[in-house]
């Protein structure tokens, strides 16, 4: 499945515990239909200590979200929007449905 969300896009979460938060896409997993957004869906991984007597660690990381739970944020109008895709030759242009400007 092709996705309209790419790396370094600004997105806003529209569903779930982090609804309303905005962040940058740091990873796209197209085969799983998921994206990882910076600062959203924080998860913790507990790691056991390597030696006796030392403390373990608690690592914080951003977990993946389903693509349907996020919307692209237009760089011009700053609102979450749907997009339309047009082709000029072999290049695909993503265009904001609200303000009709192309994403870079």
Can you describe this structure?
It is a single chain. By secondary structure, this protein is mainly beta. It has a domain of 68 residues: SH3 type barrels (Roll), CATH 2.30.30. The protein is built from no helices and ten strands. A hairpin with a 6-residue loop joins strand 7 and strand 8. The model has no long low-confidence stretch (mean pLDDT 92).
Please describe the topology of this protein.
Elements: E1 10-13, E2 22-29, E3 34-37, E4 42-47, E5 57-62, E6 64-66, E7 70-73, E8 80-81, E9 83-88, E10 91-96
Antiparallel strand pairs: 1-2, 1-7, 2-3, 3-6, 4-5, 7-8, 9-10
Indicate the CATH architecture of the domain at 10-77: Roll
- CATH T-level fold name of the domain at 10-77: SH3 type barrels
Please report the number of helical segments.
0
Q: Which parts are unreliable, with pLDDT below 50 for 5 consecutive residues or more?
A: none
Rg over alpha carbons: 18 Å
CATH uppermost class of the domain at 10-77? Mainly Beta
Report the strand count: 10
**End-to-end CA span:** 22 Å
Tell me, briefly, the overall form.
elongated
Order of helices and strands: EEEEEEEEEE
The major pleated sheet works out as: 6 strands, antiparallel
Helix content: under 10%
């Amino acid at each position: 499945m092709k996705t309209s969300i790419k790396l370094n896009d600004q997105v806003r979460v529209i569903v779930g515990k982090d609804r309303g938060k905005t962040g940058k896409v740091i990873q796209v997993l197209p085969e799983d239909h998921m994206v990882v957004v910076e600062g959203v869906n924080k998860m913790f991984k507990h790691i056991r200590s390597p030696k006796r007597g030392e403390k373990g660690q608690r690592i914080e990381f951003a977990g993946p979200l389903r693509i349907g739970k996020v919307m692209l944020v237009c760089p011009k109008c700053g609102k979450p929007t749907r997009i339309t895709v047009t082709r000029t030759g072999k290049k695909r242009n993503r265009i904001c449905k609200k303000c009709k400007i192309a994403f870079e």
